[in-house]
Amino acid sequence: MDRALYTSMTGAKHNMLEQAVRSHNLANVSTVGFKADLANAISQPINGGNGYDSRIFSVTQTPATDLRRGDLIETNRELDIAISGDGWLALESKTGEEVYSRGGNLSVDSFGILRNEKGLAVIGNAGPILIPEAEKIEIGIDGTITARALGQGPEALVVVDRLKLVNPDSALLTKKDDGLVHSSNDIENLDPNIRVQAGFLESSNVSAVGELTAIMSLARQFEMQIKMMQTVSENAETSNRILQVQL
Questions:
Q1: Which stretches of 53-109 are assigned E, i.e. beta strand?
Q2: What integer pLDDT is reported at residue 47 of this predicted model?
Q3: What is the distance between the alpha carbons of residues 166 and 193, in angstroms, rounded to a whole number?
Q4: Would you say 115 and 121 are in contact if contact means Cβ atoms under 8 Å apart?
Q5: d(C-alpha 35, C-alpha 88), whole Å
Q6: What is the pTM of this model?
Q7: How far apart are CA 237 and CA 246, in angstroms?
Q8: How many whole angstroms separate alpha carbon 19 and alpha carbon 239?
Q9: pLDDT of the residue at 142
Q10: Where are the domains of the chain?
């Protein structure tokens, strides 16, 4: 069988894989703090065998994540925060691992633990942040959390904790299947230079137009690969008929 069939097959397969990456990005265009995955296809020569040198496979890779900042959305909600400039908010994953996100839509659960939209505990100076019952909670520009206890006046604000805000080298960061950013090294100290804006959220950095354009282009490429496989199949059938006549 002509090896061109396998070449076209790998092209179609990896078109579908990149379609999945693009579709995932597009599905999260409205997800707060979401960072788009990057995908690209490369040509991989076939090693070994007796095939022609022109025969190559296609391989789709997701080599990195687009860490550019999204736009700020004003919400005026006291527990919504957006990080100004570079930096990440530290969270505790369900396995107890420290992970990072720029999604700042926070809330306090029934046990008083400050959590993000995915239900992960927000980390402070000494682990997950615990908020006492309060009439008002404020998050300062440096991430300091203050609260006014029930029945107390405005002068009774007390410091509860401080958000752990870190700014590691982007080369150490990897976005995994859970949608969160992980670091290859432990980051123990917060960065005092990071600033947050209360009452704002950072939008996804996905370009809906760009992803839609890429998806349509990939669909056309997929159709081309399918037509190539059909052509190879027709050529094989024609060759078989010629051989049958000669025999």
A1: 56-61, 72-74, 81-84, 88-92, 98-101, 107-108
A2: 59
A3: 9
A4: yes
A5: 12
A6: 0.78
A7: 14
A8: 35
A9: 93
A10: 4-66+206-246, 72-202
